[in-house]
Write a structure and sequence with these properties.
This protein has one domain (6-43, 69-336): Aldolase class I (TIM Barrel, Alpha-Beta Barrel). Helix content is 34%, strand content 15%. The chain has helices at 6-16, 19-26, 33-44, 89-99, 113-119, 134-146, 165-170, 200-208, 216-224, 237-245, 267-278, 293-301, 311-318, 320-323, 358-369, 382-387; strands at residues 48-50, 62-64, 67-69, 73-75, 103-105, 124-128, 152-155, 229-234, 250-253, 283-286, 306-309, 389-393, 396-399, 405-408, 411-418. The protein binds glyoxylic acid.
Amino acid sequence: MPLLNIFDYEELARRKLSKPFFEYIAGGADDETTLRRNREAFERIELSPRALVDVSHVDLTTSVLGQAVEMPVLLAPVAVQRLAHPEGELATAGAAAQAGTIMTLSTMASASIEEVASASNGPKWFQLYVHRDRNVSKSMVQRADAVGYKAVCLTVDVPRLGRRERDLRNRLEYPPGVAHRNYIGEVELPPFEVEPGESELSASADVLIDPALTWEVIDWLRSFTSLPVIVKGIMTAEDARFAVDHGASAIVVSNHGGRQLDGAPASISVLPEIAAAVDGRCEVLLDSGIRRGTDIVKALALGANAVLIGRAYIWPLTLEHELRGAAQVHVALPVPFDCQHPARLLHLDAAAHPAVEPRRHHRRAAAAAAGQRFPHAPLPDAKCHSLWRLHLSDAEVHPLGKRRVALHLRADRLQRIALDRLLNE
Ligand code: GLV
C-alpha cells in the first residue's frame, strides 16, 4: 500500500498496534464530537486559487520564539510514546532534529527529560503538567533548563483528564518497562491497579496533576525560570488576553486534539478571533486536526505563526521499523505531510511573516467570521504573496457555483492563495 498521506499511515498503524494502544492515540473524549469537528472545520475552509504567480523558489523556513525551523510545523507533546515505538520519545527527538524542527517533550513521557536531551541536539521544549506538589514541577522545569530545553509549554486544559471512553473500556495499561519516567526520583508513586472504568493514564493523572490551578501559575513559573512560557490549550479570545497579560511568550490554540472537553469548537474555528485579540503581542500557534499541508496553509492564513502536529507524527513513528529503508520514506520519521519533501508543500517567507500582512489577513478572517466578504485586496506586494503561496500540482479547479470553486490538490504548480472566507459561519 503506497503511503500517500497521514490517513494511510494511520490505517497501517491501526493494523499494527494492539487495540488499546491504537485507540489511546486515535481516540478523544466522550462522544468524540470535538475530535471529528477538528477535521470537519478544516475541510469546510475553502482556498481561492490564484494563477500565474512565479513560484519557482520555495522556502519553508521560518522562526518560532526566535528559533529557526525548517518548516512552520512543530511536534506537539504526546505522552507515553513507547506505546507506539520501542524507543518512543528518543526516536522522535532524532526525527525532529533531522527534520529541523522543535520537539515538545511531554511531562508524561516514557523517556526522561535528560534521556531525550542526550538523544539529539535538536531544539526542544518541555511540556508541563503542574503537580500537586509544586516542587516536583519546579524541579522538572529546572532539569529541562539545565539540559538545554528552550521553553516551557504549560498545558492549561487538563484540570482533569478528559473522559476517554475507549481507554476506559480497554482498561488501558502500559506494558512492563513503560512508565512516566520524568517522575522517577521526583515522587514516590504508590503502586496501583487499573480498576474497571479506569485507564493507567486516567488513574495517574488524578494523582499527578493539580486540579486547582489558576492563572497565578504562570506568574509562579516566571518567578523561577527565565525560559519563555508557552500556554497551550487556549480556546477563547478572553483567555488569550489573560495569557498575554500574564507574560506568555506564545499561546497554542488547542482543544488537545479533541481529547479533553468534548463539545469544544474546532481550534481552527476560534483561531481568527484569538489572533485578533492577541494582535501580535505574543506568538500564536495552533494544533488539533492538522493532517494535510493545506491545513497548515489555512492555519497560517487565519493568524497562526506555526502549527503543531501530534497524531500526524505518531503514526509514522509507529511504522518506523517496517518502513526503514523503504523507498517511500526518505526521512526517517516523521514524514508529516502529503509530500515527502517538505519544501514541496508551501512557501513561507520568514521575512514576510508575521510582519508584513498580519493586519490584512486578520481583517479578512474577522470579516469571514462575521459572514461578510472581505473585499479583494489589490495584488499584493512580493513579500505578502510569498506568505500565501501554496504548492499544488495539477491543481484542478471546478466551478461549483457563482463564486465558489473546489480545488483538488494534486501537486506541481505553486499558486498564490488567498483565504477569502470560511463557509462554516
Ligand atoms: C495526554 O496528554 C493525553 O492527551 O493523552
